[in-house]
Amino acid sequence: MKQKILPLAIASLAACGATHAEITPYGKLNVSINNDSIESATGTNNEVTQNSNASRLGFKGSFAINDALQAIYKMEYEVFVDDGDDGTGNNFKQRNIYAGLQGNWGTAIIGNFDTPLKVIGKLADQFNDYHMADIKNYAEGENREENLVQYTTPSYAGFTGAVAIQQGETAQRDSLADGVSAVIQYQANGLTVAVAADSEVDKNAVNSVRDTVRAVASYSFGIYEVAALWQDSELSNVAADDAQDTVIVSGAVKVADNIKIKAQAGRTSEDNTKIDITQIALGVDFQLSKSAKWYLYAANLETDAPAQTLDADTVGAGFEVKF
Fold this sequence. Notes:
The chain has helices at residues 6-17, 116-121; strands at 22-40, 43-52, 56-66, 69-78, 93-103, 106-114, 144-152, 159-166, 179-188, 191-201, 210-221, 224-235, 244-256, 259-270, 276-289, 292-304, 309-322. The chain is mainly beta.
């Protein structure tokens, strides 16, 4: 499908589907102006940038097959508010897309979407999708993978679980479950605790598949939010020890009905290369309505390596609207 036709296709499906199924167009536009400063051994580069922070457009829905079974679907694409494309001429970039079945036995989906391990990272990421502040800048495991089949259990006394298998579709990775990502999660009274593991998960190449274990806990009480993440990640098929340990702590406090101050700090250390990456971020959200906010934030991302140090700072102001 030509990318310029995509908005018309979405609109047509929404109009046609309204009489046959529950279909919901949705999206998010998040754009910021940032003042970036990057200092390296060769000097300092300062630049003002406009950033479209994972802005997206999509639709999702379901329809009944019988009294006990539903078909579900979702199609979501990233859009680029700042430049109009991703830098290579693509106006739309695939995000989470799947089809599946849902009943009282759970949910099964097939497609291209976030792994269970990635999903729980959002519990500790107060700056998810923000330019230079998202945990993906230093934490492994933030994967949206192709060729996934996933089963998610119903909730039992606050517990849920999910397991996704990946078909590698290469000469070396040619089975039903070349990669596996799984999670078990407990949620009750503002507390969420989750443990996830990836085994040989990566969409890029056989030599970059990774094994990762991630544990996250978050707790909301009154006006406060606190969270912590720990993980260990290493390459699956490489003899060299490249184990990476990551620790993240974050928190937020609502100082008024529509104002939230938030902070986050994280660090990744790699044993073999002796590279340490540290991030600190501080921000404030001004909620204009349930679906709109503007925000201010500052972030520092520092990479310490035996050969050199890279120090990146940004100060940004942005606006987000959801529909």
